[in-house]
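hi got a favour to ask and not much time before my train. below you get a single protein, a line of residues and a line of whole numbers that encode the local backbone shape. could you go over both lines and see whether the tokens make sense for that sequence. a few lines back from you is plenty, here it is:
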Amino acid sequence: MKSFILRCAAAAGTLCLCANAATALEQPTGSVILTVKGAITQTNSDGVAKFDQAMLAALPGREAMMKTPWIEDETRFSGPYLRAVLDEVGSKGSKLIVRALNDYAAEVPASDAIEFDTILAIKMNGKPMSVREKGPLFLIYPFDTNPNLYNEKYFTRSVWQIMEIEVVE
């Protein structure tokens, strides 16, 4: 990983994930599947950070089998930790606006990236997710390790077909 995580919680509850300024964010070589914008310090294209699948796959993450309310069978999801993506872009915001291809957007506290092992799933059952299968990215909470998250509050934050994350201070 090219950057390090510096977490600081200010009195207002702002989460600060600051990237190492000595390293620039690399350029995507494949199709861009995620754009991160807003309160970030590391960019690679006109003030935003663009990621292809390979860039996301190179970040620290996890793989987990779990039941979700959207898919009938237990499903294996894998992808980078949301906190790893935020670290990579030098996030300095307290909330995230996660937007889907169909313009659905959910407000997600940036603290969810630290408190929970949330991932931006890039694969389902070992295969890249198509738009038809809720891809290319799906924000997955660790329903497998924390049953308290299996409720409407976190279901509404579990955006699929993600195309953009806006970091807001």
Notes: The first helix runs from residue 53 to 57. The radius of gyration is 15 Å. DSSP finds four helices and 13 strands in the chain. The helical segments are 53-57, 82-88, 111-115, 152-155.
